[in-house]
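Anyone able to model this chain together with FE2/S2 (inorganic) cluster?
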Amino acid sequence: MSDTHELGDLSDLGDGEMRVCSSIGTHGVVVCRVAGQLHALEDNCSHANTPLSQGRLSGTVLVCPLHGAGFDVTDGSESGPPAWKGVPCYAVTETDDGASIDLTPLGRDRPGDNFDVGGRPRTR
Ligand code: FES
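re: yes, here you go
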């Protein structure tokens, strides 16, 4: 079952730019355009609950403004400490009529996935 929300026209969002949609999901989402494609992450760092949208986007990595952990916008994975887990990543679809987001998490942090530090499977 999908949980789809309209994002409106994001055609003015350029490469390397971000936009916050604060009314979507628990913490809002940050939508990023990289190489022409839209990607979206939950707008909340997994380390200490800081809005990632206040950080900077460097290529496909969104860097947290507080302690510098990086998150890949294409899958939500963390680049390393101090974050020890990724953030939810969502599919964004863009058409001539606008963009929409499906809040079913993609990547490693899907419900039921069982990964821990460095992507190793949890054993307990
Ligand atoms: S709050 Fe994001 S790295 Fe610490």
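The radius of gyration is 14 Å.
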